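Format notes (please read before filing issues)

Several people have asked whether sequences and C-alpha cells are stored in separate files. They are not. Every record keeps both together, in the order shown below: the sequence lines, then the C-alpha cell lines. Line labels are part of the format and must not be stripped during preprocessing.
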Amino acid sequence: MSTPLRRLALLLAVTIGLTAARAADPDPKGGPAEFKELKFRSIGPAAGGRTCRSAGVPGDPLTYYTATAGGGVWESSDGGVVWKPIFDDHTVSSIGSLAVAPSDPNVIYIGSGEANIRGNVSAGNGIYKSVDAGKTWKHIWKQEGQIGTMIVHPANADIAYAAVLGKPFGPNPERGVYRTTDGGVNWKQVLAKDADTGEEGWYIELNTDALPKVLVDRNYHATLMKGARAKPDRDFVAERFQSANWLVKTLEQRATTILKVAREIVRQQDAFFRKGVSALKPLVLRDIAIATGLHESTVSRVTSNKYIATPRGIFELKYFFTSALPGRAPGAVVSSESVRSRIRHLVDGEGSAQPLSDDRIVDLLKGEGVDIARRTVAKYREAMRIPSSAERRRLGRLGMGRSLPSGVPSAAVAAQALAGPAD
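Then the structure lines:
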C-alpha cells in the first residue's frame, strides 16, 4: 500500500462482485424532453434467443454488438436496422457477456455461457477476444461454465475483468472474479468468496490491513483472576476485562456500520461504477440514513476520511453525495457532479480559437436535458479552475494551458495574457 494510504483509517475494496444476478432495472423515468414521445421497440436480432449483453462503440452511434443465449454474437453497423452474426465459426453459441474496450473499439472480449440459470442453460467454454472489431476471434481462456459479466479498463485494453460463475449446477472453486493485465494471455483469480457464490454484481469488503487489530488475552485474564485473592483486586481485573471486551465489540460494530453504509452507497450509485461519472445520481446523507436505518450524523461520520478502491479509481465515500440539479423533463434531476464533469468535457473538446462561452455551455447542457443557469455554470467552472472563455482564448494564443495554476487567481492569469510573457 502506498504511503498516503497508510494514513487512512480504512480502505474499502470494491470490484465486480460475487452476488447473485441482479434484477433488471426499472424502466427509465424522465430524460430530455425530446425523448418524451419515444417508445421502446424490438430491433433484433431476430434469431439467437435471449439477449444477454449489448454494447455500443464510444464515438460511433451506429455500431452495436449483442451477445445472445443461443445464437453467438451479432453486430449492427446501422443502429440496429440490420444485424449480422459474427461468431458462427465457433462451436459455442451461448454468450453470457460482452465488453468493448473504451480505449480501442477494435478490441472486444466475450465470455461464453449465459449466467441466467435455468434447467436447460447451455454451458460455455471460456473467453474469446477480437482485435479487429469482430472479424476474427481467438479463444484466449478455456474455462467450462458460465461467465456473466466482463469489463475492460477505460484506458488500457489489455486489462479486463471477468465475473465467473463456473459450472452452473453445484459448487466449484472456479467461481469468482478474474483479471488479466496482458490482453488475456493470463488470468488470475483476484476475488472469491466461496465455491457456492459467483456471477455478477458488486462485492464489497473491508481492507483488513487498515483495520485496528485489538485482541483480548483470555489466558492472561484467567491467570490474573487466579492470583487476585482480595476482592478489590478481582473487581479491578474484571472491570478491565469487561472494558477490553467492550472495545473489541465497539471496533467490530464500527467496521460493520462502515461496510453497511458503503454497500448501500454502491447499490444506489451502481450506474456510476458501470458507466462513469456521467451516470452519478443525486444523493444525500438522508437517503443512505433511511435505507440503512442509521442516523444522518452516523452516516456523516462513517463516510468522512474513508476511501473506496474501485475499478474506476479511489474515491472518498463523501464523493458519492452530490446535490441535484433540475432536468428539463418534469420530475427529472441530474447530479451536480455529473454536470461539472460534463462542463469539463465540453471545455476540453473546444477549439482554442473559439472557446465556449458560459452562455453556449448553458445552451448545450439544456440540449442534453439539464436545466441550468449561467451563474451556476460560471460557479462550477471557477471551482474547477477553468478560466473564462476570453481568458482561454488569450491563453490559447500564448500556447499556455487553459486550466488555472493552483493558487493563481484568474485575474492574474488574464493580466499576464494581456501583457504577454515576461522578458
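For reference, the curators noted about this record: The radius of gyration is 27 Å. The first strand starts at residue 11 and ends at 16.
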